[in-house]
Amino acid sequence: MPFDFTSQWVVVLPPPGMVWNETVSPSRHPRKAVSIRFRDASSVTSEGSILTILGVFKDLQESAAFRDLYNAF
């Protein structure tokens, strides 16, 4: 059975020079890392934008732990 990458959780940063909009990251830090499903990545960027993927995880808990540690710095 082929690996289904679309079901994985990814921790991403917005494209270089861009910030998240309010629906993706409603905070005072619009460049912070967020956890999303890989299959939803195209819905959080404008067409042609490149996300920076910091990590790929099998579940939300692992993804959230990494995201929170990354955002602490």
TrEMBL record:
Stated name of the protein: Uncharacterized protein
